[in-house]
Structure formats: C-alpha cells, structure tokens
Amino acid sequence: MKKIVFNLILLCLVHLGSAQNIVCSLQDKEAFHSKIISISDLDNQEIGTNMVAIGKTFIGTPYVAKTLEIGETESLVINLQGLDCTTFVENVLAFGLMLKNHKKDFDSYTHYLETIRYKDGELNGYASRLHYFSEWIANNEEKGLLKDMTSEIGGLESSKDINFMSTHRDLYPFLKDKDNYNKIKSSEEFLKRQSICILPQDQIEGQEHLIQSGDIIALTTSIKGLDITHTGIATKEADGRIHLLHASTGSMKVEVSQLPLADYLKGIKSNTGIMVARPL
C-alpha cells in the first residue's frame, strides 16, 4: 500500500507544446533514460532489426491493461513499466524513431509517441486517439511512418461494420461523456466505409517468407464490431520461422511466442488472419 501511495505521489503532469498534458511518473522518466542507454549501440542498424532488438529489451515487462485510461481528460500517458499489446508496439516504434533520427531527449520521445498514438499526430481529446488498430495502421501510413504490406503479401480485401466501442459503451469510462461517445460513433461510421486487407489464417505459413523481422503484426478477428484483437512484432528466431514478440495476455508479460506465428494463431478461436505493417 505504501508503494502505491508513493507511486501516486511521484505522478507528474508536464505540458506539451500543444497545451496537452503528459502523465508520467518519475520511475517512468528514469526508465526512459535507462532505455536510451540500453539501445544506444543499435544506432546504425536497419529499422526492422532495431524494432526487434528494442522490443526484446522489454521482455519480462508486465502486461497491464487500460494503462491509458487515466484521469477525466485524455493525456499522453507514459508507462514503460506496464504495457498492453498496443502500447508495447507504440513504444517500440517511438524508440525506433529516436534511433533513426539520432534523438535521445525526453521531449523527442513524447513527440514521437504523440505522433504515433493520435490521429494526424495530434492529441485533441479522447476521440483523437487511434482506438481501432486498423485505423492506427492507416493513419500512421499517411504520416509516412509505416507501410501496410498486407495486400503485397497476399492479403484479401475485407469490409466489416466496426462499432465495438459504441455498442459496448460500459467498457470504456471515457464514453460516459456524450461528446466523446458521439465522436467515437462518427469515427466508426468513417471506418464502416473503409475496407482493409487481411491475410487469412490458413495462408500465413505459405506467405511467411514475405514477412520481415520488425514488421508490425495485427491479429484480425471474427468478433462482431471489432477489427483487431491483438498486436505485436514479427521476429525471425533460431528455428528460421517468424514468431510474435508481444505483450502477451497469456503469460501476462512481454515475450516471444514459443510457437511460430502461423501455429500460434491456430490456437486462437476467433482469429481470422493478420494485417502486416512495415516501419519505414
């Protein structure tokens, strides 16, 4: 209990240039500096190699859900001590951009994280967060940060009504606010008109040779109203196969899947396939 109180006392609010707040504990600020030191020797490597190497520095970090749902207004939450599958990928990509652009300062890190996490790179309330991961991929492609490779590796076009958040309003505390709810509904209407490419589960093994280490993998789903249930980073391991480096809900920590990606997905009943995005 004392530790929890101590951590709350250390919680700090800092202002971004866009007049939004950053929520960050002193422990996370220290974790940022430690991470910069631990990845500094990766500076001259290719971004896909860096993505895997950076991701593996998080191995063992606890899986923690809903780390971004803090306070009554949307803030840029920095949490390097507990990650869900999306914040894991976001942080790895942010540190990858740090290396690519030879940056080591905290302000650059928060800038990259805001750019990745929010529509058009700007935090402007709860609805500006890229909640649906297919939109996360599309918006970050527009920013020039990555490329959706799914169609190029054999993906098939698919359309689906995306409305999980609005139809499960009680699961999202911020949706108690009518304005947030209406904006999310508008985003869902936009997504409803967009199609995405999916590489079907039964074709992944045959196309595995086209997936590169460092690619971002998003797991598509048959769950009504939802596009993506999980995400991680592709890594070619010693067996020559692509595995998933991810914040796992099974082990409740960041790990590399024991099974190759294609076999791992067969154990997920609702999985329909994957999307693949390549950092640029």
Automatic annotation (TrEMBL):
Keyword Disulfide bond attached: no
- Write the record's keywords in alphabetical order, separated by commas: Signal
Signal peptide extent:
1-19
**Classification via Gene3D superfamilies:** Putative xylanase like domain, putative xylanase like domain
Domain of life according to the entry: Bacteria
Q: Which InterPro entries does the record match to this protein?
A: AmiA-like, Papain-like_cys_pep_sf
Organism (species): Arenibacter algicola
Any keyword Ribosomal protein?
no
Classification via Pfam families = AmiA-like
Q: What is this protein called?
A: Xylanase
